[in-house]
Amino acid sequence: MSWYTDLFASGVDKVVSAVGDAADKLITSDEERLTLKNELALIEVKAKLEAQKQEAEAEQKLEEEITSRWKSDMESDDPLAKKVRPFSLVYLLLFMSVIIIMDSINSLGFDVKDAYIDLIQALLITVFVAYFGSRGFEKYTKIKKG
Fold it and tell me: pTM above 0.90?
């Protein structure tokens, strides 16, 4: 489960256990207690499934928004709008190459801090996934629809 599901489903656990504790005090027979606990467990499972469904829908909507934004960039008459993704990728790759070369030459005394390495790594992963992974996602959705 992701943070989104945890956010919306975690409260259900507390409510179900609180209702179960309150019901234990009111219900006297073991059969009634087990029936109620089964019903509460069913409610909990349904709530978690609903939270997962909402999470999947939110992710799908986010992907559709990104795709529509990129489509509008490609349909634009502005040549710079069409080149933002390739320029970002090229810039980050060149920047990373320069940093690697400067860091490997010991006589320069150049040292890259770990925080910057983590930042460059996160940016490169994001750009690569967005640039190359989005095309694969678009193909997948086209195949799935048609």
Answer: no
